[in-house]
## 1
Amino acid sequence: METLHRITEKVVLSENIVKTVFEAPEIARKRRAGQFVILMIDEKGERIPLTIVDSDPVKGTLTIIYQVVGKTTDQLAQLGPGDVIGHVLGPLGHPTDVDGIGTAVCVGGGVGIGVLYPIARALKEKGTRVISIIGARTKKMLILEEESRGVSDELHVTTDDGSYGYHGFVSDVLRDLIASGTKIDRVFAIGPVPMMRVVSNVTRPHGIRTLVSLNPIMVDGTGMCGACRVTVGGKTKFTCVDGPEFDGHEVDFGLLTSRLQMYAEQEQLARDRCRCGNHDR
Amino acid sequence: MTDKDKTEKKDGKERIPRQPMPEQDPKTRVGNFDEVPLGYTPETAILEAKRCIQCKKPGCVTGCPVDVDIPGFLQRVAEGDFLGAARKIKETNCLPAVCGRVCPQEDQCEKLCILGRKWDPVAIGRLERFVADYERQAGAVEVPETPAPTGKRIAVVGAGPAGLTIAGDLVKMGHEVTIFEALHKAGGVLIYGIPEFRLPKSIVDAEVEYLRRLGVKIVTDAAIGRLKTVDDLFAEGFHAVFLGVGAGAPVFMNIPGENFSGIYSANEYLTRSNLMKAYSFPEYDTPIARGRNVAVIGGGNVAMDSVRTALRLGAENAYIIYRRTKAEMPARAEEIHHAEEEGVQFKFLTNPIEYVGDEKGWVKRMVCQRMELGEPDESGRRRPVVIKGSEFTIDIDTVVVSVGTMANPVIPMTTPGLETNRWGYIVTKDETGETTRKGVWAGGDIVTGSATVILAMGAGRKAARAIHDYVMAM
């Protein structure tokens, strides 16, 4: 007996970033900002973790935003309204601690803006002053600008190529903010691993507590397998049950990067073999 | 357990020897994931069952954690009534096809078989497997009538051996039973842990299907503790809760380099291969490292399953790295024997102390030290002691750490009033598995720590009776 996870909406947000809304009523009621689900499209599929971007407890739906990077995300992006996702497990991981923060800077890069948005919103609801810095490689890859503006007291937008907003990286804007004397109580940095590493390096000398949300490879997502282990402060942690957020100043990003590459060859093979027929590749 | 093929004699009377189990040839089977033992034929089964002397006070039954009427079922096999034999077993054991394959009979029923004193014991496990397979293949699995509904609802958390057993028992008493399973398939360790070549998944599926036909509801993809708590289950109207969530968290050794790519917990390695069917990648989407030189750390059944999986995934060298000697290995003799036949290389009195990675962060070598056996420790086994200056290296590209598991903290953390011990296992008040939280029972590995399928099933049976009494008195 399984809940039927019917897709109700699919929107292509940018070149290869897709938003999917699907039914998962029990998870939608329970879920809090920062938590994720493991989903598996069909019986031959793999189990992948995706952060919940939004939920509608009334409609009983969850929203996910993901970048098409491999066979599973490619296949997911092919599914539209009426299609069904075979298995969805969640909500997993610790919710973000959003209590008692005066000023928070929310730094999001690429598809990570999707993961960051619910956290910024939860912070805003708690009365935190939210400064958001969101960035993408180029203008047409930027997502959730308006949504982010809606939950921020201050919004900065960057593009690596200068096609929109500030020409540079999100970390540059953060550095400027710190230099200008802005009082910052907490930084949330979510995006590609190199971005999270750089942001953590920027805040470290200033002792600003910086949380990063990690996205390692997972299998079960319940603490059973250890695939998602990361080294934080010299200790092994399981992202699925101990995270997904960790102190950015303590995370071994090099290890995370190499573990993310563990199946690079097989992933390429699976994707080439599948050729699901996605358009923009 | 040896199969003496000589004719056994006593008082000048010839006896039938214990019938050997036909198996796939070792050279062939390392190239596939098919089951290794092929099973008895009806003729062999009858011959073997006739060896039972129908003791008045059968020792075998006392050795069975779920009290199977062993002489009763053997009698029926001897008479050729295989379906009757299957029904006899199912009176107390709802998973005979599983138990016939994975129970350590040599430490239980067969250990206490009177024939074993002088000859070899009756092959009870092989016969159990035979009758369960016979019944299933004949399409003759019957669903017994369940009594009138009691109106009592019971939630079972975890669809492993303990949970499946208690669900079967309680539904047969007329209760409404719902199992909540975190994974996408029911079966627990039977489905994610034990490999296809030892326990075909189609058999587990059939046993789960039998429970569904009995009326057990199984909700997969439901992480209790996250999606809903034990409190939520009571609020939803369940009258009692059984926790059979297993000891699912892997233990690592905390040595340098243990997080390099290519290093797995046994749980992950086996879950990828068994549950996710990574051995059929890319037909199935989940990948797994197909290492050439694979080291499995540990000496238990899970280590044997892992190392034999590595061979089947194409390893040229598959090592067992164990810090004691063969005599202290906790794995079943049969599993060690199968591994040896298949070409597993055993490195005893060896302990890894560090892993070395390449420039991509992939493990390429392990540093080990040699051990010697000292005084016995609290487990009664001689303690391995490091030989100073004995470090040496082994080139490897894949490691499977199989040194045990521990309790997953999610449920205790989210269940007020549920006491755990210092290792995180749930404290029970008596042998029925009643916990410190009213209306909540627990059993299997989450109470005992890593043990066997049949002990978890035994715990499920005992808790079933207690929960029945509890809900009927409400």
## 2
Amino acid sequence: MEYEIRIAHLYPNLMNIYGDRGNLLCLRWRCEARDIGVKVEEIGIGHYFDSESYDLILIGGGQDREQRRIAGDLAEKGERIRAAIERDTPMLAVCGGYQLMGREYRTAAGDVLPGVGVFDAVTVHPGEDARRCIGNVVAESTQVDAPLVGFENHGGRTYLGPAARPLARVTRGNGNNGEDRTEGAVHRNAYGTYLHGSLLPKNPRFADRLIALALEHRYGADAPALSPLDDALELSANVAARALSGRTWRGQAARGGRSSS
Amino acid sequence: MPTTAGERAAPVGIRLRTVAAVLAGKAAGSLARRLGRGGGTALPGLLAERIEPQVVRRLAGQIRGPRVLVTGTNGKTTTSRLLVSILRAARHDPIRNGAGSNLMRGIAATLLREADLRGGLAPERPAVLEIDEATLLMAVGELHPDVIVFTNLFRDQLDRYGEIDAVAEVWRTTLGLLPAEATVVLNADDPLVCGLQEGTRARILTYGIDDPSVAGAAEHAADSRWCPRCGRDYAYDALYFGHIGLWRCPGCGDSRPTPDATATSIDLSDDAARFTLTLPEGKRTIELPLVGLYNVANALAAAGAALAMGLAGEYVGAGLAAATPAFGRQERLNVNGREVRLLLGKNPAGLNQALHTIVAAKGEKNLVFLLNDDIADGTDVSWIWDVDYEMLAGRARTVIAGGQRAEDMALRLKYAGLPPALVTHDIAAALQGGLLRSGEGEPLYVLPTYTAMLEARESLGRWASAGHYWERDDGI
Ligand SMILES: [Zn+2]
């Protein structure tokens, strides 16, 4: 293989709650289909994160207890992660990982977990008795030409500061906070989102955007153009998810929001 | 068997209101059954509770035989069934509920069905009730159980139950309410379940698998591979599935205890599991007519409950040998000469176990995956990305994706190296496609989520050859 991207997967054993592994499977599949190599390095607690070694950073979601467990380690890595982002390394941070890439996360119990500060965003969990944001989401983004579809399940509400741009605007679902219709955040090539549910498989254009950015990060002007793939199934899943998200279920408001991101 | 434990509800003076509730509930139940509405599990209980909010407490208050509750993410239906089989071997006639009636309403309907017209229940009968993991606290308050059996705790329908810590916390609260006379039966191999023994006055019995030769490779559907006390990752001397295994914490030294009931020398075949069951009274060879290591764990859970009730080991052996698969779980039937095997898979840990069972069978595989996203299935289908479908890549002749979320299923299968030949929302069409495309003489495996299982079962039942239709068994 002529080309290769290097992915840093942060805390894969702890931050992986809602099928987040699907995002990595998708990136790998779409690279290998184009003969682009993928090297994944799993970075856990106590492992050194070198800000110059990766072309893409992934972090998934977790419960409050996992978030609490990684918070200290993440604070140690924070400066190097921010440095990587300032060098235009692309990132995808989902749900609990997204919350910790903001400036801080105030948990349901009321304690404050410091965030890495990639995004100018603050997350507040309104408490265990508050309604959780759960359900299918459809959101329009200027980053890709098809609507983003996914599933959200979070107690925390994220509010963007002046330096952050939203990733998308929700047409169905809650997004960042259920109030201002924003969803996710963008800073340089870093993307944060509440859309778990294996975001990338059903949003292949967004997956390709991350791959293209990673190649550009590695090879600059010599980066190869991405050859088109047969995405009929991917796009039909996207369309089907959009149609389904209009349905409502009885009892959708969830119980048991305790201890959760 | 010991008869009572702890603070029981006051013996019943049967109240007029209870009798009215029983009559209304029974009438609704028989009407629903006659109309063919799924055995009428929810309505009778709902109606009776309207008339007499304490109907469960009043009916259950009469039971003097042991009351056993079985809960956990996976295996509670099978474990309850195995325990019922053991009790029958010991010539008891337990009151039991079915998989679809494990909420309070379903418990009420079960008790109504068993009660006479005046609301009377034969007091000597034991009760074995499967309880939804989020309903346990309420069930304990109403039923005052003598024994609670916990199978395991995995992520399941996070949109409905919340995260697993929330479930564990409610369980801990519940166990804190138990009197010292009650017994809690815990899976020693599941660190989260095993940890429930702290903070309860109840007697603790544990069960576990002691056979590293059946350990598998690490799966992605694991939830508790690190220590909540000190934060270190557990070390495993053997990892059976998910986070279930011979765990120990290198940080604080916490470790799996030596269980009261163990399985050793396990031999898993295509149609049965054989193992040596060791109870305090001695060893016994068990022939369990169910497949898969997870059913050995379920058998141990049932044996642990039997131990808690003081039943002799010979009944455990006889009861386990007489077991039959539960509704939609490993059921087999014959459709036009072709064997169809139905394996319910509704969360990553459970489905991985079903897939291991299929991988272990000989020959090329014909597979129909059915994914629905109703409330009972979980409205969030992203859990399929935590399932290790990849283990079937290169072994399949036919792959079909069906159900309300057929496209999501198809995409997951494509990325697992199992591109489907047919993608359809129509479950009957998916099954027909599977039957048509299967190789000669090969079984067709159908892997549905819960509501898809109900629908698939109905179609398959209609097509099944005469005499091969499964035994009707009140849904348990
Ligand atoms: Zn420890």
